Amino acid sequence: MTDIKILNQRTQSNVSSRDSALDVARGMALFLVVLSHACIVSYYLTEFYIVAFFLLSGYLSKERNSYWSSIKKKSKRVLLPYFVNSLILLIIYAVLNSFSSDYIITSLLGVLYSRNSIYIGGESIMVSGNAPLWYLTSFFSTSILFHAVIGYYSRSFRKGLCLLAVLISVSIALSSIPILLPWSIDMVPFFTVVMLIGYSLKNKNISLNFNWLATATLLLCYIAVCYDNGPVNLSIRRFWGGQINTLIAGICGSLFCISLCYKKLLLPVRLFFEKIGTNSIVVLSYHILFFGLYRRIISLILSSNEVSIVDSFWCNMLIVIISIITCIIIGRIVEYIKTFKIERDIKRD
Asked: How far, in whole angstroms, is CA 133 from its chain's centroid?
């Protein structure tokens, strides 16, 4: 009983020590990811969300653990969910495709390669609803480099600046190769720069809760750079306006989003975004599955004359919200099962 109380106290301590605004920001960014996959938002709202994930990861990163300890922790937190959820989705979509051997082979290749395609503009290989999961392997690949260079980066301002310049140069050089490397290796230098910037903000004790003037300035800067930059898709290494513009837009948009999440303006939807943020892997993994499922159900319910309603903005928005809520419920169930198993094992001991 004492061990269970200690477990509960640790859980409550971890929850209370979390900055809920950062969970809200992560949830808002992921909500925009889902909207972009439903094709119902302007690219002005999608230029920063991937950068926001890496910026927040860098901001929350700590140097307490050794290199291999950090990588081992990332493996458990990122790679295990990636392969488990990818396998579940592969089985579900294989059933839906009558266990087609070509489909299964392509899906397995997509899981192992973890890119939407091998060549830029090539045929998609992440076909089992798992395309959004490229982020998990890209984050793991980036973490390997990030934790390797963070010590050198922290030594002095000049060394840190030189390292950023080298990483950006390598990233620009990699952008010219014709293939998309597995596990987003070609994007690792770019994402490492973003994580290092996030780490610097935390290390310099810079609060992300900016005043309204600074928040508005970040928004204006983001809009201006996006207008010049054009659409961006980091999953397939598409930088229409160049990597420097993409980096500036991503940082400004991310900081604006995070700062906004500290404001009372978001109170009506704050809890919704926070729940998305705390169940991010489940939402990332299964939103495409449920989005397609609910679209299919609504199409079957409606008459042939009303099927066009499914393609309307408000119907798609409703399907997105229902899909996300379903993922959140699944996430809560999984968390409850994990906690129950831990308590049961403690009682046995």
From this structure: 8
Query: 332, exposed or middle or buried, with CB in 10 Å at 0-12, 13-18, 19+?
Result: middle
Dig out the tokens for 177 from the structure. Answer: 């190769």
Amino acid residing at 243: Q
Per-residue CA distances from 202 to 63, 199, 241 (Å): 12, 5, 29
Query: Domains of the chain: which residue ranges?
Result: 17-268, 276-348
Both tokens of 241, joined, read: 């306006």
User: Using the 8-state DSSP alphabet, how is residue 292 labeled?
Assistant: H
Rounded CA-CA distance 209/242 in Å is: 29
Helices (DSSP H) in 75-187: which residue ranges?
Answer: 80-96, 101-113, 134-153, 157-174
pLDDT tens-digit profile, the chain (349 residues): 444 444 454 444 444 457 889 999 999 999 999 999 988 887 778 889 999 999 999 999 876 678 888 899 999 999 999 999 999 999 999 998 877 888 899 999 999 999 999 998 888 999 889 999 999 999 999 999 999 999 999 999 999 999 999 999 999 999 989 999 999 999 999 999 999 999 999 998 899 999 999 999 999 999 999 888 888 889 999 887 789 999 999 999 999 999 999 988 777 889 999 999 999 999 999 999 999 999 989 888 887 666 678 788 888 999 999 999 999 999 999 999 888 877 777 777 6
The whole-angstrom separation of Cα 1 and Cα 3 is 5
Q: Is the pTM of this model over 0.85?
A: yes
> DSSP label at 264?
G
Helix (H) or strand (E) holding 233: strand 232-233
Which two tokens mark 266? 């978001």
Residues forming beta bridges with residue 342, ordered by sequence position: none
Alpha carbon 241 to its chain's center: 22
The secondary structure of residue 118, as a DSSP letter, is S
CA distance 192 to 189: 5
Annotate 178-229 with DSSP letters as a single string: SBPPGGGGGGHHHHHHHHHHHHHHHHTT--S---HHHHHHHHHHHHHHHHHH
